[in-house]
Amino acid sequence: MNPNHLVEVIPGLYQIRLQVPIRSLGYVYAYFVRSNEDNLLIDTGWPSKDTFFELETSLAEIGVSLRQIRTVVISHLHPDHFGVAEQIKDLAPNSKLVIHRADAALILDDYDEYKGFVSELHVWLSEHGTPPEELQAMLDASTEMLNYFRPPKPTTIVSGGEILRVGDKWNFEIIPTPGHTIGTICLYERMSKVLFSGDHVLPTITPNVSLGPYYKGDPLGDYLESLDRVNELDVDLVLPSHEFVFSNLKKRVIEIKRHHDERLNDAMSVLEKGSDYGPMSGYQVASKLKWHSGEWGALGAWERRAAVMETLAHLEYLKRNRKIAEVREIKNGKPQIKYALIL
Fold first, then answer.
1. Distance between CA atoms of residues 303 and 74, nearest Å
2. First-residue to last-residue Cα distance in the chain
3. 196 near 187, Cβ under 8 Å?
4. Engineered SS bond to 201: which of 104, 181, 197, 221, CB 3.0-4.6 Å?
5. How many Cα atoms occupy the beta-carbon half-sphere of 143 within 13 Å?
């Protein structure tokens, strides 16, 4: 194994690099903390045999077996973070599996529930202007997940403010940070001034913040408030799920807020330029924005779906701040949702 897959960030705290078969991600970091005989694993990687092997062999390098895991924390309900959680629990049946209550409420129990969720999501995307041929590609990309989808079954539900103690050295406070998902959490260790930021705060890229049938309300508004929440903490070291460990949290929060201000302005500009042709769907607006993963035509089905849903989160935020209006139409007997500037 490449030794870079396992790095001791500070004594007793390890970063483990795990592969993710999504082009725009490439890998995800899990973190392992130990003190005496106690330990904590933060996230578990993608649901695959390769991930399981990487995690198992990485921990073996420091003399730890998956059977010895005491507590697993899932930062949020995305497969690159909870993927092999249940396999770990099979080996360590007395271990705790910790998830925030808001994400726990959205866990799907079986194949039929997941299939129904995917179907509902793609009807919703259709209402927001996604063309039928693209919907099918998005559906195919989602259905592929069913081949190895095993949902986590938490033993411990948290709301925020709880302390996870690891031996006599670590005390991690659970910080609720909704936005990326409705139940995303960060972990803060006050004595060492370490923040496990998961996908909430990343050093150069920004997490997807999506509006969807399972995250209604104002996800972007939630996310911006969550940034303020972690910005109040005294942090020396930030441990993200992607890219690299970094230090200047306050500077990064300012940069992320600036990014979202620019994205909101870009969405407004697209609506303004298209105003002569009437209201625009979320899909139409998304297709005219610039994306980190590349130009719209180069994005795959999975990435386009994420882009549409993130655009809708920004449009919802603008609507709630009375910058734009939602326009509902009926086309060929089916509802269509579009957006227009408030003049």
1. 23
2. 60
3. yes
4. 197
5. 9
Helix (H, G, I), strand (E, B) or coil at 56: helix
| Nearest residue to 197 via CA among 157, 141, 242 | 242
Name the nearest CA neighbour of 320 among 180, 218, 215, 209. Answer: 218
Query: Could you give the CA distance from residue 250 to residue 253 in angstroms, rounded to a whole number?
Result: 5
| The CATH number of the domain covering residues in 263-341 | 1.10.10.10
The per-residue pLDDT for 112 is 80
pLDDT digits (tens, 9 = 90+) for 8-29: 999 999 999 999 887 667 899 9
**What is the C-alpha R_g of the chain?**
21
Give me 288's structure tokens.
Answer: 């005219």
Cβ neighbours, 10 Å, residue 210: 21
Distance CA 300, CA 232 (A): 38
**Nearest Cα to 321, choosing from 253, 265, 259, 257?**
265
- Domain 3-107+151-247: give its CATH architecture: 4-Layer Sandwich (3.60)
For the chain, the domains span 3-107+151-247, 111-146, 263-341
**Around 229, how many Cα atoms within 13 Å sit in the side-chain half-sphere?**
23
User: For residues 263 and 317, is the Cβ–Cβ distance under 8 A?
Assistant: no
Q: Considering the entire predicted model, what is its pTM?
A: 0.94
H or E segment and range at residue 270 = helix 249-273
